[in-house]
């Protein structure tokens, strides 16, 4: 557990830095363009390469030193940040250099994520999976809890260049932490014998498809990623419609306290069962509060709804993580997590591709002062800039609730609890 904690601290610091960059990039692009569509394009480019290359990253994580893969992925991802910084400092600003930079970073992060998830299994016993998952969720929560607040304050006195420099510094700290762990643990040596990409790819896919419970869970998590991407992308333009960047950062940070609460509860409770039921209920709760975020422009109510939404997410992610981790053998976990990443996070890609366009050209006009729905739904949730996004979040939350109930009730997912127990005792 000690080696895992060192690795976790490094990832916590890295998460704070990357969260600051994501926040600053979203604001930078929105201020340049005034368009939710371009904000969603930036988010798409920051995720798509990582998602598409995750199977390759997973294959490499199963064949080579997983901690070395993490060092290389983190180190080279800094090149994308450096390219954005240079373009701004040399007067070549605009959205194009930002898009190129986030794409470069995303490509190299594909080496990091499957290796990190598989390394957790390397370092821990099965009894520690849930507690470790809660800590991992807490590290992930930092990009929503701390990053927006810090970045918002920095942006009030400086610009995106300062954020990029800080993020690159956090990457250096992370690389040192991973290197420290690598020196103290026996790691697998590179193997070049009988390597066949397509066979390795097929084995990774087979580890998912041969288990009906894992397959159903992957489908459910695809839809969860799709729905969550709406609120992650559209909250920035919706809130900026009635406040400034500093206030937005404070609101996002306070809202994300929910992820910290959820992660701490998981760590304290050290949940050891009922994962399938917890998954379904927490995802339904998340859907309810996502819908509520779209109903108001009151900052305090919005923060409360967002906080409760974020509180539910660690329970969803931890339940899915433990159910899958216990079902898949360790020697194929790199490939499995790579495939699971590309299959589930494609939901983000689809959402990023459509949500900005829907906000700007469909729902936005409907709820402008003279819009088609101004006299009906507009009387309930308001009209004007950003209210079309509010309607989108209401609809998305309702659909998220329905999918959680329908898929979470499936026997293949509910049966994973019993099967996991049997596998653990035979």
From TrEMBL:
TM regions (residue ranges)? 7-30, 36-56, 68-88, 94-112, 132-154, 160-181, 214-242, 248-268, 275-294, 300-324, 336-359, 389-408
Listed SUPFAM superfamilies: MFS general substrate transporter
The molecular function GO annotations come to: transmembrane transporter activity
The UniProt record lists the Major facilitator superfamily (MFS) profile domain at 3-414
Q: Which GO terms describe its cellular component?
A: plasma membrane
Q: Where in the cell is it found?
A: Cell membrane
Arranged from A to Z, the UniProt key words for this protein are:
Cell membrane, Membrane, Transmembrane, Transmembrane helix, Transport
Q: How does it sit in the membrane?
A: Multi-pass membrane protein
What is the name of this protein? Major Facilitator Superfamily transporter
């Amino acid at each position: 557990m000690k080696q895992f904690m060192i690795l976790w601290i490094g990832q916590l610091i890295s998460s704070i830095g990357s969260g600051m960059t994501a926040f600053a990039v979203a604001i930078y692009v929105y201020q340049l363009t005034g368009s939710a569509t371009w904000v969603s394009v930036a988010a798409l480019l920051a995720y798509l390469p990582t998602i598409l290359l995750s199977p390759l990253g997973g294959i490499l994580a199963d064949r080579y030193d997983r901690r070395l893969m993490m060092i290389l992925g983190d180190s080279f991802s800094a090149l994308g940040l450096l390219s954005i910084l240079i373009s701004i400092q040399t007067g070549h600003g605009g959205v194009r250099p930002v898009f190129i930079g986030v794409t470069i970073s995303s490509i190299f992060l594909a080496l990091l994520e499957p290796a990190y998830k598989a390394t957790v299994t390397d370092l821990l016993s099965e009894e520690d999976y849930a507690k470790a998952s809660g800590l991992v969720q807490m590290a992930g929560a930092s990009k929503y809890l701390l990053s927006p607040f810090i970045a918002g304050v920095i942006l009030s006195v400086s610009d995106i260049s300062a954020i990029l420099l800080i993020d690159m510094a956090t990457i250096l700290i992370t690389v040192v932490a991973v290197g420290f762990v690598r020196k103290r643990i026996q790691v697998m040596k590179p193997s070049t014998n009988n390597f066949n990409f397509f066979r390795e790819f097929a084995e990774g896919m087979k580890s998912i498809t041969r288990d009906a419970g894992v397959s159903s869970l992957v489908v459910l998590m695809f839809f969860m990623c799709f729905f969550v991407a709406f609120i992650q992308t559209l909250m920035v333009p919706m809130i900026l419609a009635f406040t400034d960047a500093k206030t937005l950062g404070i609101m996002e940070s306070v809202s994300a306290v929910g992820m910290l609460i959820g992660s701490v509860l998981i760590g304290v409770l050290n949940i050891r069962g009922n994962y399938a039921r917890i998954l379904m209920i927490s995802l339904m709760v998340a859907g309810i509060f996502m819908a509520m975020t779209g109903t108001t422009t009151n900052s305090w109510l919005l923060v409360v709804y967002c906080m409760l939404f974020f509180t539910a997410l660690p329970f969803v992610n931890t339940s899915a993580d433990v159910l899958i981790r216990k079902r898949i053998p360790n020697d194929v976990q790199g490939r499995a997590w790579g495939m699971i990443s590309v299959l589930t996070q494609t939901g983000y890609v689809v959402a990023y591709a459509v949500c900005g366009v829907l906000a700007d050209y469909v729902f936005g006009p409907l709820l402008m002062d003279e819009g088609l729905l101004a006299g009906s739904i507009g009387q309930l949730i308001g009209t004007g800039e950003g209210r079309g996004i509010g309607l989108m979040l209401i609809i998305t939350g309702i659909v998220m609730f329905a999918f959680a109930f329908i898929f979470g009730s499936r026997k293949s997912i509910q049966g994973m609890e019993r099967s996991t127990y049997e596998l653990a005792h035979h």
